[in-house]
Design brief:
2Fe-2S_ferredoxin-like_sf; Ferredoxin; alpha+beta; 2 iron, 2 sulfur cluster binding; binds FE2/S2 (inorganic) cluster; globular; Ubiquitin-like (UB roll)
Length: 128
């Protein structure tokens, strides 16, 4: 059976880098697909423990978070499946849209904020 592919758009919010869209198989992780495409993303443990690879979901399957009340309308848990437990993220991080790209595989087309700044934002503000 051929596994499904999804278009994943990568944006570097605070870096002067071009937005890139890559096709990611349902059985590979976003990090693996980026590497296959020659795109460097930050990573450390590759097992979901350190958080270095953290990205943030901006849009899934055409749905964006609503700006008015900052409630997210995107289904974060439905947008990705994890190969193993994402130990580096607390539940509230996951609810807020943070994703561990080293172990996450997409279930839908989506847009992600990536790069070292996303992890920094997570570490600097423990309430996010
Ligand atoms: S590289 Fe460590 S959690 Fe992804």
């Amino acid at each position: 059976m051929v596994s499904q592919r999804h278009d994943v758009t990568l944006e570097w919010p605070d870096a002067d880098r071009e937005t890139r869209t890559i096709a990611v198989d349902e059985d590979e992780t976003v990090l693996e697909a980026a590497e296959r495409s020659g795109i460097a993303l930050p990573f450390g443990c590759r097992t979901g423990a350190c958080g270095t690879c953290t990205g943030r979901l901006l849009e899934a399957d055409g749905a964006e978070p609503t700006a008015a009340d900052d409630e997210r309308t995107v289904d974060v848990d439905g947008a990705f499946s994890y190969r193993r437990s994402p130990r580096a993220l607390k539940d509230r991080h996951r609810t807020a849209g943070y994703v561990l790209l080293c172990i996450a595989s997409p279930r839908t087309d989506c847009r992600l904020a990536v790069g070292a700044n996303v992890h920094t934002e997570l570490v600097e503000n423990p309430w996010k």
